[in-house]
From TrEMBL, chain A:
Signal peptide: none annotated. Keywords: ATP-binding, Nucleotide-binding, Transport. Residues 2-238 form the ABC transporter domain. InterPro entries: AAA+_ATPase (IPR003593), ABC_transporter-like_ATP-bd (IPR003439), P-loop_NTPase (IPR027417). This is ATP-binding cassette domain-containing protein.
Automatic annotation (TrEMBL), chain B:
It comes from the Bacteria. The lineage of its organism: Bacteria, Pseudomonadati, Bacteroidota, Flavobacteriia, Flavobacteriales. Keywords: Membrane, Transmembrane, Transmembrane helix. This is ABC transporter permease. It holds the Pfam family MlaE. InterPro entries: Permease_MalE (IPR030802). The chain crosses the membrane at residues 38-63, 83-104, 141-164, 185-205, 225-244. It comes from Winogradskyella damuponensis.
């Protein structure tokens, strides 16, 4: 479990995170949602240890990140997989080399063992023939799948995704969402996704944390989000007429 | 205050270049790629510029030797001194600040913009070592480039002198060999090593710590070129005062 307690983060005078407390459980897809500027990305980067925070704590399975030694932090980072918004594939490497990269860095596997593992994960993300392509030759959806393959190749315990659907068409976005959820179930990992995609919220939000102005405004799941009376959440999630109608239909059906 | 902060960050970066080294099996291909990009890829432009500037130095020297009392071999002597002492180590380094420096800044800066550096950091990799150390090692071969620049500069002077009708080959070669001081080579290569270090680290600093998008990558490349050139000129002055003064 990842536990966050009273997390505060500022940049100069700007107080971005104002005391967030939440937890993310194993085997669940956890979504952090909120408007642009609500502090989602800063929160995610604090979780990843890319930003230092002033107050509060983040613990990974009981290990408080800020109290770990540099070696322990490195060992923990090897257990983290990350899918960046823009995929962040290394553009000087082929797709297979990108996926193999964490294995080359952190394991002592032989070349054939690494190649076998790369084949397994590229097959898992439905890219069995993409090994020799360069990232620039791949579509946005393919790049996201490669990024997911790279994130899971070293069997991480924790998977973080920053806006995995941004810039993708609705059909590809659903493929990516489903892939992330399947991987979470299959490998029994903790997945934390930063998103403002409402389809993702409805489809895979087993736990949802809603941030507003650096505070946790609501916490629940894709089941409870339909029933919430919290105006801050309903204003954001049901801002479009389509989602208003979907919610109305859901509530009528459940009555 | 901002300058102090930048200088401090630069020196911390230099310390980080040598901290927590990346696995050799990963580092080796990076070094070879950087040797290809930074050293081999620069030979053409360096050779072209050196040859023709050497020729121009010889022609200018010859045209300005108006007194009949001045021996003709002075053309070779002056060309050799200009090329070895200043043109090859310093002038070529400023050209390399433009060519290699902006390549380093823009390639690292683009990795920053596209979150590739964040990806390295999330994996627990020392991104500064991973990115800058191969460039630093590749640029230890920079004296090889400067040696070629020296040879071709002097050769360009010879060709211009002989085929331009400014003097004979014998006079020119006599001038090149005259009063040769080996310490001048040591001075030139000490400068070259220091400039190589500046060429590897200042552009890397501007690429690594840049913020923003594509436009800022361009701005960072320009700023990196300006500061690398300024530092080369200042360090050149300092080293000349220390070693020859």
């Amino acid at each position: 479990m990842i536990e966050v307690k009273d997390l505060h983060k500022s940049f100069g005078d700007a107080h971005i995170l104002k005391g967030i407390t939440t937890s993310f459980e194993k085997g669940k897809t956890n979504l952090i949602i909120g408007q642009s500027g609500s502090g989602k990305t800063v929160f995610l980067k604090c979780l990843l240890g890319l930003f230092e925070y002033e107050e509060g704590s983040i613990s990974y399975d009981g290990k408080i990140f800020s109290k770990l030694s540099p070696n322990e932090k490195r060992a923990l980072r090897a257990e983290i997989g990350m899918v960046f918004q823009g995929s962040a594939l290394f553009d000087s490497m082929t797709i297979a080399e990108n996926v193999m990269f964490p294995l080359r860095m952190f394991t002592k596997q032989s070349k054939s063992e690494m190649e076998d593992r790369v084949n397994v994960v590229l097959n898992r993300v439905n890219l069995p023939d993409a090994h020799k392509k360069m990232p620039s030759e791949a579509s946005g959806g393919m790049q996201k799948r490669v990024a997911i393959a790279r994130a899971i190749v070293n069997n991480p315990k924790y998977l973080f995704c920053d806006e995995p659907n941004s810039g993708l068409d609705p059909k590809t976005a659903i493929v990516i969402d489903n892939l992330i959820q399947e991987i979470t179930d299959e490998f029994n990992i903790i997945t934390v996704i930063n998103s403002h995609d409402m389809n993702s919220v409805m489809e895979i939000g087993e736990k949802i944390v809603f941030l507003k102005d650096g505070l946790k405004a609501w916490e629940g799941s894709n089941k409870t989000i339909f029933k919430t009376d919290n105006e801050v959440v309903t204003d954001f999630v049901y801002s479009s007429n389509l989602f208003k109608k979907v919610r109305k239909m859901y509530l009528e059906e459940s009555d | 205050m901002i300058y102090l902060h930048n200088i401090g960050t630069y020196f911390i970066m230099i310390k980080d270049i040598f901290r927590r080294p990346t696995k050799w099996s990963v580092m080796k291909p990076l070094i070879l790629k950087d040797i290809d990009d930074l050293i081999i890829g620069s030979l053409g432009i360096v050779a072209f510029i050196s040859f023709f500037v050497g020729g121009v130095v010889a022609i200018q020297t010859s045209l300005n030797m108006t007194s009949p009392l001045m021996p003709k071999y002075l053309v070779g002597f002056a060309t050799r001194q200009s090329i070895i002492l200043e043109f090859a180590p310093t002038f070529i380094s400023i050209i390399m600040a433009g060519k290699v420096g902006s390549f380093i800044t823009s390639s690292i800066g683009t990795m920053r913009v596209t979150e590739q550096i964040d990806a390295l950091e999330v994996m627990g990799i020392n991104a500064i070592n991973y990115l800058v150390f191969p460039k630093f090692i590749a640029l230890t071969l920079y004296p090889f480039v400067i040696s070629i620049a020296m040879f071709l500069g002097i050769l360009g002077g010879l060709v211009a002198c002989v085929y331009g009708g400014y003097g004979t080959m014998e006079d020119y070669i006599e001038g090149v060999k005259m009063d040769f001081i080996p310490f001048h080579f040591i001075y030139a290569f000490v400068k070259t090593f220091v400039f190589a270090f500046l060429l590897a680290t200042i552009p890397s600093y501007y690429g690594y710590f840049m913020k923003g998008g594509a436009l800022e990558v361009g701005k960072a490349s320009t700023t990196s070129f300006v500061w690398t050139s300024v530092m080369i000129i200042l360090v050149n002055f300092l080293l000349t005062s220390l070693l020859l003064g």
